[in-house]
Automatic annotation (TrEMBL):
Compositional bias segments (type: Pro residues): 314-337
Ranges where the record places region Disordered: 301-363
Entry EC no(s): 2.7.11.1
Enzyme class: transferase
Gene Ontology molecular-function annotations: ATP binding; protein serine/threonine kinase activity
PROSITE patterns the UniProt entry points to: PROTEIN_KINASE_ATP, PROTEIN_KINASE_DOM, PROTEIN_KINASE_ST
InterPro entries assigned: Kinase-like_dom_sf (IPR011009), Prot_kinase_dom (IPR000719), Protein_kinase_ATP_BS (IPR017441), Ser/Thr_kinase_AS (IPR008271)
Record keywords: ATP-binding, Kinase, Nucleotide-binding, Serine/threonine-protein kinase, Transferase
Keyword ATP-binding set for record: yes
Annotated residues for binding of ATP: 42
Domain Protein kinase: 13-266
Protein name per the record: non-specific serine/threonine protein kinase
Length: 389
């Protein structure tokens, strides 16, 4: 039974009007009376075929997964504020976004350009990688669960995704998800994995860029039959997105495109390139050869030393020829470089100021000087005598 408008949830969240409906619940615009802010409340309606024990178990799992989703800090992940259990069913309180779903965007505009689709896919894939790192699987990636604002794409409906993880749900014969967006292995009864979320993302991007669902089938069994028939997936408007979509929509999960490579390929297409081009182009770049880099030497004299002297010229390096054998009677001859250093150059040292010595005083001056110093005060001494002092 759906809650009426104006219902007060947990004595805090006042439901005002529904903003979206699905097979498993309704999204309400609500007002948080405690913090005085607008929020979105997801009312989860459990199937009537479930017994009391299973309903209690599903409510507990929804609360755990809701709190785990709240731990994920990513701009493309819907922010979960609270998980409330009331009237024997879970309620999920989330941020309220002024946005349209990707499904509504396709209805208003038609197929999106490949570059815009790649940017949406890149952001949604970033959200999937963030929640997968926390051990959470979405299990219901489709256009209606992707909200698109002016500057970001946000993945929603994590509360319902938690319901798929229980094995007992499969035993009850319930298959959660939308036809055309469920991975083939999940239709066959296999356990959900991160690779299944990537397949659902590929089907979502295919719908966004082609303007129609995968193979146009309305049931999961019909879509699986079309995929396993061997018919090629038609790609008419995908353009540079074709390699990404073919990699994400592989039937075999082991051969499917992984999240890291898919993220890089989507980023290239969103930047205006192709999916298979290298990340860094080295063409046109000049790489300096290591042999041309001069390495300073610390065991020999620098070549520029002494060039400031007038008339000096750089000395040539000594030849690498061993000196001739000499007899023991003759004294050893120094090498040529030491002979040149021993001979003083004509202009060497001319830049230095010559030092002049004072002339010797007259003998009479040397005799009279002690008498003058003894008799006269210092102020009356001759100028030359005061300088000598």
């Amino acid at each position: 039974m759906r809650a009426p408008s104006g219902y007060l949830l947990a004595a805090r969240y006042r439901l005002s009007e529904p903003v979206g409906r699905g097979g498993m619940g309704t999204v309400w615009r609500a007002h948080d009376e405690l913090l005085d802010r607008e929020v979105a409340v997801k009312e989860v309606r459990l199937p009537l075929v479930l017994d009391e024990d299973l309903r209690a178990e599903l409510c507990a799992r929804t609360e755990r997964e809701g709190r785990a989703t709240a731990m994920v800090a990513h701009p493309s992940v819907i922010t979960v504020f609270d998980v409330v259990t009331e009237d024997e069913r879970p309620w999920i309180v989330m941020e309220l976004l002024r946005a349209r779903s990707l499904e509504q965007l396709l209805q208003d505009r038609g197929p999106l350009p490949p570059r815009e689709t790649a940017e949406i896919g890149r952001q949604v894939l970033g959200a999937l990688r963030a929640v997968h790192a926390k051990g959470i699987l979405h299990r219901d990636v489709k256009p209606s669960n992707v909200l698109v604002t002016d500057d970001r794409a946000v993945l929603t409906d994590f509360g319902l995704a938690a319901l798929e993880g229980d094995v007992s749900i499969t035993q009850a014969g319930i298959v959660l998800g939308s036809a055309g967006y469920i991975a083939p292995e999940r239709v066959l009864g296999a356990k959900a994995t991160p690779s299944a979320d990537l397949w659902s993302l590929g089907a979502t991007l295919y719908t966004a860029v082609e303007g129609r669902g995968l193979h146009g089938r309305r049931t999961a069994a019909a879509a699986l039959a079309a995929l396993t028939s061997g018919e090629p997936i038609p790609m008419e408007k995908a353009g540079p997105l074709t390699p990404v979509l073919r990699g994400l929509l592989m039937i075999d999960p082991a051969a499917r495109l992984d999240a890291v490579r898919a993220s890089m390929m989507l980023a290239r297409v969103a930047a205006g390139g192709t999916a298979e081009e290298p990340l860094a182009r080295t063409a046109g770049r000049t790489v300096r050869n290591a042999a041309t880099i001069a390495v300073p030497s610390f065991n020999r004299r620098p070549q520029h030393r002494g060039l400031h002297r007038a008339g000096s010229a750089p000395m040539p390096p000594p030849p690498l020829i061993p000196p001739p054998a000499q007899s023991m009677a003759q004294p050893p001859v120094p090498p040529p470089q030491f002979q040149q250093r021993a001979q003083r150059r004509p202009a060497e040292g001319m830049h230095r100021k010559p030092v002049s010595r004072a002339p010797e005083p007259h003998p009479l001056v040397r005799f009279v000087t002690p008498l003058i110093r003894l008799v006269l005060p210092r102020l009356l001494w001759p100028k030359e005598l005061r300088k000598r002092r």
